[in-house]
Design a protein that fits this description.
Blueprint (H helix, E strand, L loop, with lengths): L2 E7 L3 H12 L4 E4 L15 E3 L1 H4 L3 E2 H13 L4 E3 L2 E9 L2 E8 L2 E12 L3 E3 L2 H4 L2 E2 L5 E3 H9 L8 E5 L3 H12 L3 E7 L8 H8 L6 E3 L1 E7 L6 E6 L12 E4 L2 E4 L3 E3 L2 H5 L24 E3 L10 H20 L8 E6 L3 E5 L2 E3 H7 L4 E7 L6 E7 L2 E8 L8 E5 L8 E8 L2
Parallel strand pairs: 1-2, 1-8, 2-5, 8-20, 10-15, 11-18, 12-13, 12-18, 13-14, 21-28
Antiparallel strand pairs: 3-4, 6-7, 7-8, 9-19, 15-16, 16-17, 21-23, 22-24, 24-27, 25-26, 25-28
Helix pairs in contact: 1-3, 1-9, 5-6, 6-7
The protein binds flavin-adenine dinucleotide (FAD).
Flavin-adenine dinucleotide binds next to helix 1, strand 6, strand 9, helix 5 and helix 6.
């Protein structure tokens, strides 16, 4: 049976970065991907805008992925494509993985795991859209796959529900391909996507965005013929009398992404109710020793640049962990997010690792729960301030990255607070 130091599950940007870093630290590394090509979701993202933070360039998804695939080709990372990890279990020496591929079932062992399995899209069933179930109800990712990978136009006239980035990008993409988009409908009062995508994908193409409105019903037998849209109240409930019927042949859903954590759950990894990904420390290690997590499996990211950063962090630390002969017991300080925060990651700081790393700052990401104007964000421990910054505005879709200098944590807690300055 093959035995590896580090096995990385998922060959998207997080997995690519993790595998490269792990191998760079000298670990015998296996990268497993269920599709026939590496790159994850980036393969179907042919628009530009990737890599601004990391490379200072506007790249398309495949171009961005290639920046990591090229060095991987020259590395000692062992790749397994068209291979699905169907099972993972803990054993004395690490983990045993069951792999399913065209050549059958196989078992491999690895000292350490990096979960980089990405995320999945919420479907119509998960948001309770009523009516018949004809063809033509698609998630934005599926519509993107049909258009960009298969070269097939999935819609002639489509309503988009949800103003997440993938929906906005598909509104523009389908318009460019000759389809009509009568509107993007968003139940919340503010859009969910990045401001640059609202401007470049909707405003530039005169596609209307209706906030405070949602799709309540789908009509059609074989194929979608129309949808009913309604205004919603502050509790997101449809308001009677505001119904409007919009003729269309397709309903595209862009109503949220959920970290893909089936394997993590089976391995007993505790998940965060806020991020829906594993609770982890600053090294990307989950609360189960030896299991690391990165990218959208850990926390749904708005920028792929941060996905690569989290993959590198997890891959590097996974290799260190695999090579360590003595592993210090982790001593956790909790990272608490006060009122106004949607989530914070990591949720724990391993103080043993902080002591070992000396002066190295710890990176923390957070999102605000609602749109805010000028806001001061502080981090305190036992009454001592360790971070203080004023933001001109904060928006839930935009993840903020901060670096903390941590030396001494009081009462085992670091608490983030927000204060409005308007
Ligand atoms: C449909 C969709 C479209 C997106 N479009 C954009 C966009 O336009 N711009 C943007 O900035 N961000 C976009 N994103 C966000 C994007 O997902 C991230 O920026 C980035 O691709 C996440 O990288 P990742 O490696 O964490 O996940 P992914 O790119 O999703 O990669 C995960 C990989 O893991 C593999 N995998 C999962 N489970 C297993 C298993 N059990 N065994 C083997 N392999 C497995 C999958 O096949 C996949 O290749 C999109 C996300 C989705 C879901």
């Amino acid at each position: 049976m093959n035995h590896y130091d580090v096995a990385v599950i998922g060959g998207g940007p997080a997995g690519l970065a993790a595998a490269l870093q792990s191998e760079k630290q000298g670990a015998k590394t296996l990268l497993i991907e269920r599709e026939n090509r590496l790159g994850g979701i980036l393969k179907q993202c042919i628009h530009d805008g990737f890599g601004l933070v990391r490379f200072g360039e506007k790249l398309s998804g495949p171009e961005y992925a290639y920046r990591f695939q090229a060095p991987l080709e020259g590395s000692a990372v062992e790749k397994r494509l068209l291979t699905f990890v169907s099972r993972a279990r803990k054993i004395d020496t690490g983990f045993e993985l069951t792999l399913a591929s065209g050549s059958g079932m196989e078992t491999v062992r690895s000292g350490v795991l990096v979960l980089a399995t990405g995320c999945r899209e919420r479907t119509a069933r998960q948001i309770g859209v009523h009516g018949t179930r004809p063809a033509g109800v698609l998630t934005a990712g599926s519509a993107q796959y049909y258009t960009n990978i298969l070269g097939q136009l999935p819609a002639r006239r489509c309503v988009i529900l949800g103003s997440g980035d993938i929906g906005l990008i598909m509104a523009r993409r389908l318009t460019l391909e000759g389809a009509t988009v009568p509107g993007v409908y968003e139940a919340k009062q503010t859009p969910s996507g990045l401001s640059r995508n609202i401007a470049q994908c909707l405003d530039d193409f005169n596609i209307p965005l209706y906030t405070g409105r949602t799709v309540t019903r789908v009509f059609g037998r074989q194929r979608v013929e129309a949808v009913e849209v309604c205004s919603v109240n502050e509790f997101m409930q449809p308001i009677t009398g505001t119904e409007e019927c919009i003729p269309c042949d397709t309903l595209i859903l862009s109503v949220g992404l959920i970290p893909e954590n089936e394997l993590a759950e089976k391995l007993g990894v505790p998940l965060s109710p806020e991020t829906k990904g594993p609770i982890c420390d600053q090294n990307g290690m989950t609360m189960v020793d030896g299991i690391f997590c990165a990218g959208n499996a850990l926390l749904v990211n708005d920028l792929v640049d941060y996905v690569s950063e989290s993959g590198e962090n997890a891959g590097r630390n996974a290799a260190f962990y695999a090579a360590a002969t003595k592993r210090p017991v982790r001593r956790f300080a909790a990272v608490n997010a006060g009122a106004g925060f949607l989530c914070v990651s990591p949720q724990r700081i391993d103080m043993a690792a902080v002591d070992a790393a000396g002066d190295t700052p710890v990176t923390v990401f957070f999102r605000a729960a609602a749109e805010r104007g000028k806001t001061r964000v502080k981090a305190n421990t036992g009454g001592k301030e360790i971070f203080n910054r004023t933001y001109r505005h904060l928006r839930p879709p935009e993840m903020e990255r901060v670096e903390l200098k941590i030396s001494n944590v009081q009462n085992g807690e670091i608490t983030f607070v927000m204060e409005s300055e308007e």
